[in-house]
Design brief:
mainly alpha
Length: 110
């Protein structure tokens, strides 16, 4: 069976012959798939670092000086918002990673 490792036309949704299309939707898809959960966790880490980079662009200063507790709280808040966002919304990164890793991990003869 030929494996499509280089999909030059992703809008065509090319899959291997005989392979079922991937269902990663929130409407009862592969909720217990460990690979999908790992991909969603990676997406949440990516979103967290995006939030961290965005907070780094805000200039320091203001009426009340920032403390270490506020920085820890903001970091924990960003981490939780990123985790919730990746679980509840489809940004596409987890789905694309899951599709690509499923294509690579196809065993010969399947």
């Amino acid at each position: 069976m030929e494996v499509f490792l280089n999909n030059q036309y992703p809008e065509l949704n090319l899959i291997n012959p005989g392979q079922k299309p991937l269902d990663t939707g929130k409407k009862g898809g592969n909720k217990n798939d460990p690979l999908l959960e790992a991909c969603r966790e990676f997406e949440s880490i990516f979103i967290f670092y995006m939030f961290k980079a965005m907070r780094g662009t805000v200039p320091e200063g203001g009426l009340i000086p920032r403390g270490m507790g506020e920085e820890i709280f903001e970091s924990m808040l960003d981490e939780e918002v990123a985790r919730t966002a990746s679980q509840n919304e489809d940004y596409g990164l987890a789905r694309l990673l899951h599709e690509q890793l499923n294509r690579i991990n196809i065993k010969p003869g399947e």
